[in-house]
Amino acid sequence: MDQAHRDPAIRVTAMPADTNAYGDIFGGWLLSMMDSAAGLTAARYSHGRAVTVAMDGMQFHEPVKVGDEVSVYTSIERVGRTSMTIAVEAWRRARHVDHAAKVTQAKFTFVAIDEAGRPRPVEG
């Protein structure tokens, strides 16, 4: 994904409440932002409710600090009958600079569901 020419699915400022005891942002907070961004993409694409059913492993390339702007980018990689695989990247940018750095990436699998919580065809 080329983040320089795309709008992020989510952009947020990392805040003190999101830190661990060492002052870095919790990995779980970042994972939550990524899952939320992928969920927005899945719901929009499938025209309805979609739930996370799997995620591949993540590796953190560098920490996110308080005050960093975190941008999460998504792209749909695969669409099945009821499921979608969404590639997600998280980037950080220090508050007063232009340069952004990729923090992590993962692939999330979502299943489109109906009102009863059963899988439904992806309408795409």
UniProtKB/TrEMBL annotation:
CDD domains in the cross-refs: BFIT_BACH (cd03442)
Entry superkingdom: Bacteria
Keywords of the record: Hydrolase
Biological process according to GO: acyl-CoA metabolic process; fatty acid catabolic process
Ranges where the HotDog ACOT-type domain occurs: 4-116
One annotated Gene Ontology cellular component of this protein: cytosol
Annotated InterPro entries: Cytosol_ACT, HOTDOG_ACOT, HotDog_dom_sf, Thioestr_dom
Protein name: Acyl-CoA thioester hydrolase
